[in-house]
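Exercise 7 asks you to align residues with tokens for two separate proteins.
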Amino acid sequence: MSSIPTLIDSHCHIVFRNFDDDLDEVASRWREAGVKALLHACVEPSEIPAIRALADRFPEMRYSVGVHPLDTEHWRDDTIAVLRRAALADKRVVAIGELGLDLFRDKNLEEQLQVLRPQLDLAVELDLPVIIHCRDAAEPMLNELRARVPEGLCPRGVMHCWGGTPDEMDGFLELGLYISFSGTVTFPKAVPTHDCARQVPEDRFLVETDCPFLAPVPRRGKRNEPAFVASVANRVAELRGVDLDTVAASSTSNARRLFGLP
């Protein structure tokens, strides 16, 4: 019997209420699926105590602290201080985010930039990678990051739940960023994402669930969970014309390198 390959779910949200009733079973399933580590993303500061409690409960979990671009209403004068304090207080905080730009749902680009910039600065200050949410906003995101390069203020990090084009991907790769694929890579009509999964360098991609959202085929439309990252990795392997072990080894090594994961 072949062994189950080691996987890392590099982006999940199990703090959500729809995991309240069966989280121990969910954890059993991710362990059975070979998921040896997971990175819990944060969307706004009030989540941090509950995410920290989950990290106490599940030793394989690490987490980020940050403010999502669709949660700008949670930004306060003291938010950056709150994020800094949380990151310095717990070595399990391995990233700043989920931060970024989202012009699909909201059009308040200037407001989003005002929340994004101090978080990018904080990541550079603390020498932590960033988790970047970027939807219908590749051009302004690339412009912001490129403008930071000359002063050494462009942090390392990952483009989470990648859904852009290969040309956009190349722009982010040139900045040293990693590309992460979620359940969307299993969707039949996600052709640009398929192309990116084929073309991304072997040492620069991650796999994730973004659970409870974006469950992969054949569970699309249902609650997603970390165990299902195996379906994501399997589809990436098919697209790249390699076996699952190869994708699992590459994505796991890349996640460990970027985030210092166990």
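Second protein for Exercise 7:
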Amino acid sequence: MATIPIRVPNLAASRTTARSRIRKRLPAAFALLPTALVVLVVYIGCMLWTVRLSFTSSTLLPKLDWVGLAQYSRLFANDRFLTSVENIAIFGVLFISGCLILGFLLAVFIDQNVRGEGVFRTVFLYPYAMSFVVTGVAWQWFLNPGLGLQKLVRDLGFPNFTFDWIVNQDMAIYTIVIAGLWHGAGLTMAILLAGLRGVDEDLWKAAKVDGIPTWRVYVSIVLPLLRPMVITATVLLTTGVVKLYDLVVAMTLGGPGIATEVPAKFVMDHLFERNNIALGTATATIMLIAVVSVLAPWVYARYVRPQGRHA
């Protein structure tokens, strides 16, 4: 009867290999240690400190008393804050959907191997390279009824032309959306264009053989393949919506009245102008919860769930 050889693991060799791996990783670990400390102390520490202050009665200077949810009750009874939430919801829906649609259309256009593709790519992506402050100042001038588009059209011989959205309380928030679309559509275009360039040519050949219309191919075949890129673009755009501040300040200063007030401006005003630290940090905590609620599902779908499948 044949015997099956049994291999005895070499414990000494495995221990030596483990020690060598640890020695190789130690320099990298020491190099990353300062960054890890900065993340823990500055970022996480400041977030926890902000949350803690939101449960106090701090005004000009921080206090360590405890008032429970009193600041949150005041916050959700504040008309200015509720207006800012309504404005950020309008901006977010129109901005994200508009950037995804416009960015996809621009990506499809460039993907047709048009002449001067590099020029078009640069032109469409260039606004994203500019800061929101520069974007806001440029659009504030362009939409100013006495200086920009309205005056230009009237000087061309159309004296009854009116485009005064930026000074109209009912329409001012939509001027912020227009400027945001001009700024953010290029980023979406770049992300989706990278996905389009990865679509297999055989899919297009098969669709042509079957006589499927081009628009149907994009809607039913290409878009599902671009789902990871669409999710990534949506997450980036959503975080930009939550922290919207400089574009509003550069264009309207939150006006006319509070027509374009947003939560980030509400926070800054209460922290540095109204000397109400507790109410400002309560608003910042609400914004933090909004960001985490967006990022957590994305992180889970992107990193946690794939590891669970492999396990």
